[in-house]
Amino acid sequence: MTNVKKIVECVPNFSEGRDLEKIEKIVSPFRGKEGVKLLNYEADKDYNRVVVTVMGEPEAVKNAVVEAVGVASEVIDMTKHEGQHSRMGATDVVPFIPIKNMSMTEAIEIAKETGKEIAEKYNIPVFLYEKAATKPERENLAKVRKGQFEGMPEKLKNPEWKPDFGEAKIHPTAGVTAVGARMPLVAYNIDLDTDNIEIANKIARAIRHSGGGYRFIKAGGVEIPERGITQVTMNLTDYTKTAIYRAFEAVKMEARRYGINVLGSEIIGLVPMEALIDSAAYYLGLYGFSMDKVLETNLME
């Protein structure tokens, strides 16, 4: 009987998007490892953050991630970190996504093992979030990260926010890390032709679930000073229920209220083909179209 390989994806986010030498050091543990494939890494200077996408066998991916967290804790000093993206640690967030021959329960188990190792090896407190959360209020990453690096020392004094692993005391320079398990999401940013962050925040508030908008959108406003614009930055947590085109059109509609335009948009990291096909079908007015009609899905493995 053949041994069926389990495949997991991991998308760790590190709080460094400007120093290429540091970024290469952080990414290095994902290169040349058996059972691990580095798919993509994308740095953003404004966010001062790099998003890495890796895939492979669970144990091998876990070991590479733990190693990269150690490197990040050595090269990143959060007391000096500035950027447009919310963050609470040198390794800010580590989500595991089951891809092939793997259940969500198994992804949760890998997340727990990873969190435990990070806390034990590097004295970095770890919160479990999303599907791996130990409390309902820890499912939402925004709630876990509220207060950011600067507010974490005070937050950890509250017994309600005792870390899942490690002491209730932040690492002095590496902060706090969140490790979790989730379904694939789409990290999506939409550019607005205004530098008014208040407008971007109002639009984000209108379309996100917590503001009465779409159930599977988490969104916020971000300034991009170098380009003189703002963005609505979002995570589409279930693209099968809230499609990319729906988020795009909703932002365009809200922008009109303020007399501004959408300049374009970008996807951060990798995205499932189905998510793009769905939007292509919408804009082309295709009916009866499905993934079965996509050439690549009919190719033999």
UniProtKB/TrEMBL annotation:
Residues 6-183 form the Formiminotransferase N-terminal subdomain domain. Residues 184-298 form the Formiminotransferase C-terminal subdomain domain. Pfam families: FTCD (PF02971), FTCD_N (PF07837). Keywords: Cytoplasm, Folate-binding, Histidine metabolism, Transferase. It comes from the Bacteria. GO terms for cellular component: cytoplasm. The keyword NAD does not apply. The keyword Cytoplasm applies. GO terms for molecular function: folic acid binding; glutamate formimidoyltransferase activity. GO terms for biological process: L-histidine catabolic process to glutamate and formamide; L-histidine catabolic process to glutamate and formate. SUPFAM superfamilies: Formiminotransferase domain of formiminotransferase-cyclodeaminase (SSF55116). Its EC number is 2.1.2.5. Pathway: Amino-acid degradation; L-histidine degradation into L-glutamate; L-glutamate from N-formimidoyl-L-glutamate (transferase route): step 1/1. It is found in: Cytoplasm. PANTHER family: FORMIMINOTRANSFERASE-CYCLODEAMINASE. This is glutamate formimidoyltransferase.
